[in-house]
Amino acid sequence: METIKSIVDQLMKETKIMHSALKAGDLEVALEALNERDQLISLLEKLDVPERAKNIREIYPEYEVIDKECKALIQELRDETEEAFYKNRSLKHQTHKNRIAHDRYSNNALSEFGSRIDNRK
Protein backbone atom coordinates (compact mmCIF):
# COMPACT_ATOMS: atom_id res chain seq x y z
CA MET A 1 0.00 0.00 0.00
CA GLU A 2 1.49 3.29 -1.14
CA THR A 3 -0.16 5.26 1.69
CA ILE A 4 1.76 3.36 4.36
CA LYS A 5 5.04 3.87 2.49
CA SER A 6 4.45 7.62 2.17
CA ILE A 7 3.56 7.93 5.87
CA VAL A 8 6.69 6.03 6.89
CA ASP A 9 8.82 8.17 4.56
CA GLN A 10 7.29 11.33 6.02
CA LEU A 11 7.98 10.00 9.53
CA MET A 12 11.66 9.56 8.68
CA LYS A 13 11.75 13.02 7.10
CA GLU A 14 10.32 14.63 10.25
CA THR A 15 12.72 12.62 12.41
CA LYS A 16 15.69 13.91 10.42
CA ILE A 17 14.34 17.48 10.62
CA MET A 18 14.03 17.15 14.38
CA HIS A 19 17.56 15.74 14.62
CA SER A 20 19.01 18.62 12.59
CA ALA A 21 17.08 21.19 14.61
CA LEU A 22 18.32 19.74 17.89
CA LYS A 23 21.90 19.78 16.63
CA ALA A 24 21.45 23.45 15.76
CA GLY A 25 19.76 24.16 19.10
CA ASP A 26 16.51 25.33 17.48
CA LEU A 27 13.86 24.07 19.86
CA GLU A 28 10.90 25.60 18.02
CA VAL A 29 11.60 23.66 14.84
CA ALA A 30 12.38 20.52 16.85
CA LEU A 31 9.07 20.74 18.72
CA GLU A 32 7.15 21.29 15.50
CA ALA A 33 8.82 18.23 13.95
CA LEU A 34 8.10 16.24 17.10
CA ASN A 35 4.41 17.15 16.90
CA GLU A 36 4.31 16.10 13.24
CA ARG A 37 6.00 12.82 14.14
CA ASP A 38 3.46 12.15 16.88
CA GLN A 39 0.60 12.69 14.44
CA LEU A 40 2.20 10.37 11.88
CA ILE A 41 2.82 7.68 14.49
CA SER A 42 -0.79 7.83 15.68
CA LEU A 43 -1.91 7.61 12.04
CA LEU A 44 0.26 4.53 11.53
CA GLU A 45 -1.22 2.94 14.63
CA LYS A 46 -4.72 3.35 13.19
CA LEU A 47 -3.77 1.72 9.89
CA ASP A 48 -3.49 -1.94 10.77
CA VAL A 49 -2.37 -3.59 7.54
CA PRO A 50 0.39 -6.16 6.89
CA GLU A 51 2.50 -3.70 4.86
CA ARG A 52 2.85 -1.47 7.91
CA ALA A 53 5.11 -3.88 9.77
CA LYS A 54 7.28 -4.46 6.70
CA ASN A 55 7.76 -0.75 6.05
CA ILE A 56 8.51 -0.02 9.69
CA ARG A 57 11.09 -2.83 9.84
CA GLU A 58 12.87 -1.28 6.85
CA ILE A 59 13.39 2.10 8.50
CA TYR A 60 13.68 1.03 12.14
CA PRO A 61 17.49 0.61 12.38
CA GLU A 62 18.13 4.11 11.02
CA TYR A 63 15.21 5.52 13.02
CA GLU A 64 16.54 3.99 16.25
CA VAL A 65 20.02 5.51 15.78
CA ILE A 66 18.60 8.97 15.09
CA ASP A 67 16.15 8.65 17.98
CA LYS A 68 18.95 7.81 20.45
CA GLU A 69 20.96 10.82 19.24
CA CYS A 70 17.89 13.05 19.62
CA LYS A 71 17.35 11.84 23.19
CA ALA A 72 20.99 12.60 24.02
CA LEU A 73 20.75 16.07 22.46
CA ILE A 74 17.55 16.80 24.36
CA GLN A 75 19.22 15.72 27.61
CA GLU A 76 22.17 18.04 26.91
CA LEU A 77 19.83 20.97 26.23
CA ARG A 78 17.90 20.16 29.40
CA ASP A 79 21.09 20.11 31.47
CA GLU A 80 22.21 23.45 30.00
CA THR A 81 18.80 24.96 30.72
CA GLU A 82 18.79 23.73 34.30
CA GLU A 83 22.30 25.08 34.87
CA ALA A 84 21.31 28.48 33.48
CA PHE A 85 18.11 28.45 35.58
CA TYR A 86 19.98 27.86 38.84
CA LYS A 87 22.67 30.39 37.92
CA ASN A 88 20.01 33.03 37.21
CA ARG A 89 18.19 32.10 40.39
CA SER A 90 21.39 32.64 42.39
CA LEU A 91 22.01 35.98 40.69
CA LYS A 92 18.43 37.06 41.38
CA HIS A 93 18.85 36.20 45.06
CA GLN A 94 22.13 38.13 45.22
CA THR A 95 20.54 41.13 43.49
CA HIS A 96 17.71 41.09 46.02
CA LYS A 97 20.20 41.08 48.90
CA ASN A 98 22.15 43.93 47.29
CA ARG A 99 18.95 45.94 46.88
CA ILE A 100 18.09 45.48 50.56
CA ALA A 101 21.57 46.62 51.58
CA HIS A 102 21.35 49.63 49.26
CA ASP A 103 17.93 50.62 50.58
CA ARG A 104 19.10 50.37 54.17
CA TYR A 105 22.19 52.44 53.48
CA SER A 106 20.45 55.16 51.50
CA ASN A 107 17.87 56.04 54.19
CA ASN A 108 15.06 54.10 52.65
CA ALA A 109 15.11 51.60 55.48
CA LEU A 110 12.36 51.22 58.01
CA SER A 111 14.88 51.28 60.86
CA GLU A 112 14.71 54.66 62.56
CA PHE A 113 17.95 54.11 64.44
CA GLY A 114 19.91 53.31 61.25
CA SER A 115 18.53 56.41 59.53
CA ARG A 116 19.57 58.66 62.42
CA ILE A 117 23.14 57.42 62.29
CA ASP A 118 23.28 57.96 58.52
CA ASN A 119 21.87 61.48 58.87
CA ARG A 120 24.66 62.49 61.29
CA LYS A 121 27.31 62.03 58.60
Secondary-structure topology with pairs:
Layout: H1 2-24, H2 27-46, H3 50-105, H4 112-119
Helix pairs in contact: 1-2, 1-3
Question: Helix count?
Answer: 4
Order of helices and strands: HHHH
Radius of gyration, whole Å: 28 Å
Helix percent reads over 70%
In percent terms, what proportion of residues is strand? under 5%
Largest sheet features:
none
Distance between the termini: 90 Å
Mean pLDDT: 83
Explained architecture:
With 121 residues, the chain is an all-alpha fold. It has 4 helices and no strands. The chain has helices at 2-24, 27-46, 50-105, 112-119. The chain starts with a helix and ends with a helix. The mean pLDDT is 83.
Key attributes of the depicted protein:
single chain, 121 residues, mainly alpha
Give a concise summary.
By secondary structure, the protein is mainly alpha-helical. The protein has 4 helices and no strands.
